[in-house]
Write a structure and sequence with these properties.
Blueprint (H helix, E strand, L loop, with lengths): L22 H7 L28 E7 L2 E2 L4 E2 L3 E8 L2 E5 L2 E5 L3 E5 L4 E6 L4 E7 L1 H7 L7 H6 L2 E3 L2 H17 L7 H19 L6 H6 L1 H13 L6 H8 L3 H12 L3 H19 L4 H7 L5 H12 L3 H5 L1
Antiparallel strand pairs: 1-9, 2-8, 3-8, 4-7, 4-9, 5-6, 5-8, 7-10
Length: 313
Amino acid sequence: MFSHKRFFHVPFVAVFVFPAKNFINFRRNTDCVSYHTDHFPILGIQEFSENQLKGCNLLFNELSGARSIDEPHKHDFFIINLFEHGVGSHTIDFTEYAVKDLQIHLVFPDQVHQWVIEKETVGYQLMISRDWFESFLPSLRFSASYYQNHPVINLSREVFETFLYEFQSIQKALRGEPVFWELIQKRSELIGLLVSQSVEGAFKDFEMYHSNPMISKFLHFIDVHFKTERSVSFYADKLNISANYLNIVCKKNLNASASSLIQDRILLEAKRLLKVSDMSVKDIVYDLGFYDHASFSKFFKAQTGMTPSQFKE
C-alpha cells in the first residue's frame, strides 16, 4: 500500500512503488490518473498532487526501501533522483544503469524508464513540472542531449552533501505557510547548476561537447525536427555549414555519420511509442513520417533485429 508519510505541503502518491499489475490499487489512491488502453499511463506531475493546488510545479519525495516499476513508462515532467545509498538497477531509454551510493539520476520529460531498487536504498527525489522545466533548462549549461546520454552521475561525498543540503532546503520550504514558490524555483535552478558542475570532466566526451557547440546544436535540431526532416542538408542549412562538413564534424567527434544520428533519434522515438503509447504500429508509421508500414518495418528490423510488433510485445 502507499504511504503518505514524509510528503510536505503538497502530498502525493509515490509512483515508484507499484508493479504494473497493481493499477487498481493505484487508482484507489488517486482518481486523477488519465488511463490509456496500453499497459500503463503517461503521468503528469499534477497526478501526484492530491489536492491539485494551482501553481504546484515541484514535488519532493523521500525514497527508501524496496520498490520497482516492472514495466517501462514515462512522465511529462523532469525528475532528479539523489541516492545516498543505492542498490538496484534503473533503465532509462532502454539502457540499464546500476543504482549505487552517492549518485544523481536524471529522467527528462518523455524519456522511458523503469527500475528495481532494493530495500537498502535511501534517496531523495524532485519532480519538476514541464512548465518549470523550461525555465530550469538554462541552468543545465550543456545541451539536454548530453545529459540524456549521461543520465547517471557519480558524486564525491563532499558534492553529495552540497546536493543534499539543497534538497533538504526545498523539503523545508515546502512545509511553509504559505509556500514561497519563487525561492523553491531558484533552489531547483541552483541544483541544475550543481548538476552542470558535476558533469564537467566526469565523462570522456565532455571536452568534445564543450568545445564543439555545433554538435550540441545539431543534436538539438534533430530533437526538434526528426519527425519531418531526415536529410543531412536540412540540418546543415540550419547550422550554416555544408552537409559534407557536418558529416566530417560528426565522424571526427562522435565516430558516427550525421545521417546515423538522425536515424538513432527516430529509432529511439519508435521504441518509446511502441512501448508506452496506445498507438498502433500503423499510427506510429504515420507519426514518424514513414512512407508505409513496410518501410518502417524494414528500418526498425535493420536497427534492432526484430519487427516493430515483436518489440511492442
